[in-house]
Amino acid sequence: MEAESGRDGRASAWIHAFTYAVVGGGVLTVGSLVLSLVTGGDLVRAKIILFLAGWIVLAYSTVKLWPTSRPHDEAGREDPYAQAVPHVENVGRFQRIVWNTPPARYLTTPAPEDRISTDGKLFLVGLVTLAISFVLETAFGVG
């Protein structure tokens, strides 16, 4: 997969991020259904587990996205070497699965500088999970 940059690269990055969110929300939904059935519950328990999981993922990603202060040396001055080594995110197994899931499969991989951070994608996973919980309650009457 070739990396692309520019406006097309940002669009591809957002499509990859939303694919990550949908796949992550689906994994959490299946996990909550399995956990509910294993513990002798029903769809109501699965919805509650999904709701709690959504809030936990949202809280975790918010903490990870929270800005930090710039690194300082012992004398309190800003460290000029803090940005010397750029941060490169690890590409894990889950990310590779998402890259092979449509529609992300048919797009080129965005350039590293255009990609949405893993913490930003986790935030989207939390929102999708809460949306699935909401739909279960309002549209399907799981209460």
**Secondary-structure element order, as H and E?**
HHHH
- What share of residues are in beta strands? under 5%
Into which percent range does the helicity of residues fall?
Answer: 55-70%
Structural class: mainly alpha
Low-confidence stretches: none
Give the N-terminus to C-terminus distance in angstroms: 45 Å
Radius of gyration: 19 Å
Helical stretch tally: 4
What does this structure look like?
58% of the residues lie in helices and 0% in strands. The chain has a domain at 22-66 and 91-143. The model has no long low-confidence stretch (mean pLDDT 85). α1 (7-38) packs across α2 (43-65), α1 (7-38) packs across α4 (118-138) and α2 runs antiparallel to α4. With 143 residues, it is mainly alpha-helical.
Question: Could you give a quick summary of the protein structure above?
Answer:
Helices cover about 60% and strands about 0% of the residues. The protein has about 140 residues and is an all-alpha fold.
Descriptive tags:
single chain, 143 residues, mainly alpha, 4 helices, globular
Q: What topology emerges from the helices and strands here?
A:
Elements: H1 7-38, H2 43-65, H3 93-99, H4 118-138
